[in-house]
Amino acid sequence: MSVSSAVGTFVVWDYVVFAGMLLISAAIGIYYAIADGGQKTSKDFLMGGRSMTAVPVALSLTASFMSAVTVLGTPSEVYRFGAMFAVFAITYTCVVIISAEIFLPVFYRLGITSTYEFINHNMDIIYSFFQILYTGIVIYAPALALNQVTGFHLWGAVVSTGVVCTFYCTMGGLKAVVWTDVFQVGVMVAGFTSVVIRTVVVQGGISPILNDSYHGGRLNFWDFDPNPLRRHTFWTIIFGGTFTWTGIYGVNQAQVQRYISCKTRFHAKMSLYVNLLGLWAILACAVFAGLCLYSVYKDCDPWTAHIVSAPDQLMPYLVLDLLRDFPGVPGLFVSCAYSGTLSTVSSSINALAAVTVEDLIKPYFNLSERQLSWTSKGMSLLYGVLCIGMAALASLMGSLLQSPLSIFGMIGGPLLGLFALGILFPWANPTGGLVGLVCGFAVSLWVGIGSQVYPALPENTMPLPLSTAGCNFSTPDMDSNWMAATEMTPLTATLLNEAVDRPYLADHWYSLSYLYFSTVGTLVVLAVGVIVSLLTGGRKQHLEYGKTLVKEDLIFYSLFSSCKANEEKQVEMLNWKPSPTKVSGTVNPAFSDIELDLPEK
């Protein structure tokens, strides 16, 4: 397919669709602000009155998990590195099982609102700082990518999404957040589907897309290389990915707060398992969208040709290239991307408010439930403003934009290790937890920051080849010499130029796959925490009931117990013998013999 340097732009109907998405989200917040008399207590506001059911919470978890990074980043990931990303479907399964069977039972039994009630309230400050930083970037990064391709107003998008998100979080609390997520996950699926269907039509069916992907090396699902320095392999995604995402699903306040708001533990567990279906669906859409992207631009890569300045801009470019004759549909895709942003930001704002009220206000101020409710709303408003302000700060970070995201990911590993230490090891004590956490942070930050200073070389990241052989530019400034200079991708050229003067650790320890950062942090905390706890008398401490996992929490144990009980009941029934009874009255025992000896017809 020939690619031009100019594609369509946004029209009125695209803005109408985007505005409609924002208005519906705001209307949901207004509805839950007045429904059932409004949010009378902090429990109603922060936890939905602990009355939520499985399906809406499941969809909310899916929407929060799949941010704009998924909508814009995953297709470009598949475009550049292949469909191995689909192996995350197995990772998500492992993450959901671990979260549902290990962390959920303990959190739900304790009836906590903030996960940091389980460990140390001082961690709230660290969590809040990185959550605000991450949320600001989540607001700004997709807005920048979409602005540079579609011309969509950058700060108009940033401010409008931030204000609407803050509005419905402040008005409707957790219920508004959950139900807007339900609406937004539908928008995300619709946006992906519109792009996929149009691409299939343009390319002449699914078979040509798969054929192009196969010959381009993009159907590389199974790479069993155990080398931990390789960016993505089967083992890296399964083991490293499981640790990374369990840190988000299992112990992160934004996710845990949703499933422990369910009215029963059964509903809480079901919300996680139903959510798994949503994760698979979104992942399938994103991966196939990446294959569509490659099929369309296999002969003329817009990134190498400098038509777009970053890989995250490839999907918006495709949308305007193929859907410019369908007014409103590009707006639907942008709404899809911003639905991911809204769901992630609303989760963060609600989680930050919950952590602040439960851990930093309640213990030190004697407030009534009504006062706590208004305080919770005030915190939501404050954090919404701070996140918008952080988005403005993110615009000034330039090349450092990715560093805070990586550091935030590194924080999750040691925190996961600390929670796992307390839940899985009864002899773990505060001394072991503190020493383990410090060591985990030290090692995790060491490898993570080192990887930012010395990026891995192409032989570890292994980007697949991109071509500009089929480009046909009509603009006068695109001459042949310039085209020849861009055959090598910008990232590859930069890394090769920097390959000299690299220390030994750069190509070994610092080149560890980013998915193992969390794994390293978690394992260090567990190993050091267990050893220090045993050395400091952890086995002698008084264990508070309910704070560790017990076998009755596991669904597998419940199923085994149920099966065993049924088996014992069947054995009992087989061994049962009727006691002899005296026949009396008009009952004639000969009738039974006659009835059993019926003649055959």
Walk me through what this model shows.
This protein is an all-alpha fold and 601 residues long. The protein has 22 helices and no strands. It folds into 2 domains: 12-396, Up-down Bundle (Sodium/glucose cotransporter), CATH 1.20.1730; 400-456 and 510-565, no CATH class. Helices cover 67% and strands 0% of the residues. The protein is globular. 48% of the residues are buried.
Mean pLDDT: 77
End-to-end distance: 77 Å
Helix proportion range: 55-70%
What is the β-strand count? 0
CATH architecture of the largest domain: Up-down Bundle
Strand content range: under 5%
Q: Can you write the helix and strand succession as a string? A: HHHHHHHHHHHHHHHHHHHHHH
Spatial extent as radius of gyration: 28 Å
- In CATH, the homologous superfamily of the largest domain goes by the name Sodium/glucose cotransporter
Question: What's the structural domain tally?
Answer: 2
Main sheet overview: none
Counting helices, strands and paired strands, the structural category is: mainly alpha
Name of the CATH first level of the largest domain: Mainly Alpha
Which stretches are low in confidence, meaning pLDDT under 50 for 5 or more residues running?
1-5, 398-404, 475-499, 582-601
